[in-house]
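Quick question: what would this complex look like in 3D?
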Amino acid sequence: MGARPEEKLRGLMPALYGLALARLGNAADAEDAVQEIVVRVLEKLDSWRPDGPFEHWVFVVAANHVRNLARRRSIRDARPAPESIEPEPEPPDLLEAAEDVDRIRRALRTLPPDEVAPVLMHYVHGLSQKEVALHLDLSVEHLRVRLFRTIRKIRRSMKEHP
Amino acid sequence: MSCPVAPLEACAHGFLDAEESARVRSHAAACPGCSALLASFERERRAIGAAAAGLPLQDPMGDGLFRAGLERRRERPRMVFFRRLAMAAPLLFCAFVVWTLVRQDPAREAAELVEKLGSDRIEVREEASRRLIELGDAAAPRLRELAKDPDAEKASRARNLLAQIAIAATIPPELRRARPGIERRLSPSDNRTWTQEFLETVKQKQTPLRSQDLEVLVTRALRGAERLEELHPILDEISSRKLKVDGADLIGLLDRPDTSAYAARAISKSGSVEALREVIRRIDELPNRHYHPATVKILQEADPSIVVPELLKLLDKEDRRSRGRATWILGELKAKEAVLRIRPLASDRDTELRRCTAFALGNIGATEAIPDLIRLLEDRDFNVRCVTAQALVKLQAVDAAPALIRGLQDLEPAYRLEAARSLGALRSKEAIAGLLKVLRSDPVESLRWVAATSLAQLGAREAAPDIVALLDSEDFTTVCTALAALRTLGAEEVLPEIARRREKFEAFPGSAGPAVLRTAALAIAELTARKGIPALAALLTEGSKDVRIQAARQLCLSGSREGVPTILQEGRSLEVLNALREPDLYKRLDRPFPGSGSGSDPLGFKHLAEAAGLTLDVTAAPHLAATALSASSGGTVRELLTYLLDAVSCDVILSEGKLRLLPRAAALEEWKAWWAEEQKKK
């Protein structure tokens, strides 16, 4: 039932890259971190216990590694105050073609990987919002603001590129 | 009347906690407009999930990085030995030093270390302190002597070290193994250090700790937490691990709107009786509205033999506010033993107390109090009248109909609305004339559509032309409600009227347009189904996709297979086919699913299959299945599966005694193969 760990890990790359980019702030560090995460995950496969989802375990390993990197490089900025949520949308602003997966995918590809990462971790890989917030070093409220913002961007992008 | 959109959006995207989400869903269940919008947001959420799942592995996000990682791993073995040796050297050195120190007599060593505490060099003092803590009780006698030293600085240092040794003695070995050096990081006087240590410990998921290991830290960690980012995770851990904690600290957090819900959950889960008594004692002192649902939740989950007598004591108090709150909560707890005490309060001169009494009597199911409640329908305060009407519906008090019919002419619109709704729910046929009058001429639009819904519940076909008039409203909710009412009435004669307004429905802005069109399609299909299968089959060639899908669904539900190709080509919800293919197995899904707490259980999905008496085959999203189980435990197997199908891109197939969960694409292929086979047989 299910793919080999290497294949599963390969499918997690966009989210891992986004996670690293969100925490480290630049592409070169993020790429280096993701390569290291691949090495660590494959080396630690023995310590994964299959009583929990493989994806969740990989994100724990990745978040620990990225957290250590961030701490070591002293780039842990002060936690930003949660942004306020944008005004309530009225029906005209709502997603007009909610089922149009291809258009949403196109819109997602225009967003930076660190913005897509929370969407992938929560909506695709099944992490709870609390877990995603923990891995990204955010409060749950802050994460929700970010997710809201990403969803709005998707809607805007679909409106601008029908 | 239009409802706010933000809660629906937040609910669909899972941004609300369970309590808020349940509130929004229960509102949506009663409001067709919100129900359609909620469904639209949920489709959006699923579509985003599906779109994100299919993102291609592009560089620099994907394949290149993965391959580079593999390459790096292949290169690594050559370095491993030297790197490990280099890394191990300081450790071996430290081990040697420690071993040398350990060999000494502890008392003599303690004496030497205490001397070093007076050193001028900070690093010598620090090392001596560290080692003295490690020696623990063996170092205590010397430190106690030093604590009496006339040199204030030395004495203070000794007292500090004694306190740290005392802390170290309370830390379980498992925690010490998981968090080396913890006793040095915890300060006896600064709770903040306990907060930080607790949060770091629970983050460290690779080393699972037992609840009792964390209980050493949690009370002081809670006291030291200053920010919400610290309080929320600590309270979450108390709830999820059922940690025992000082009740007074939790009670204090109930007063804060931003922590009250978390603290309430923690009190319920920690099982602190003192905290429970304190919650009841303070019912009348708590001003903010956030406290109230939190209180109810705590008390509902607690032992009624403790809670109910304490609440009844509050009814003896002079203060009306605490009596009102106690009454309301007794109602929430459905405490039958409280009815005799509560009934007299229906004639109290305090308005709020009468309102609470009406609610409580209805919620408890006190049918003996129906005459008191009917009298309360004439109360001078309209809020009391509204709550009383709701209570009478809960009691199914058909005797209340005449008073409620009089209420349709009340001056207060809120009570007119409640009366109209209640008459529908009570199935009071004698109310039809009054409700028709409201539908035709009440100046408040929301009242007109509530009247339409009630008339539909009463089966008043004569109301159909007036309900059709509501379809011309500019208000999204009014139109959706009118369509739902026509569907309930089964008024197939209005089909041309609905079809004629298609362009008007399309003109609703944003996602409201598609939502109204879907509601209209459902009404068209259900009303056409009353004319028979041929009429329904004719809709399969209709221009609108929504109508085609709904018609196909109705055909399947009617036992006809003509709609199957349409569902396979255009439909999104396939599970309806199960009813057609394996009707006997499908019935088994109505069995209740007992598995509370199964969400965290990896075998939860297996239990689901066992509850249905079927064997299990899962090839998609087992971890999401666990989440779905957790979110809807206590329902039937079919409800759980519906929840699951809403949450993930997969489908459930019942075949040959098996319950199978497949990715949606694989399921679609399977359904198509099955249909082709069916056609061949034909």
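Answer marked as accepted. The mean pLDDT of chain A is 73.
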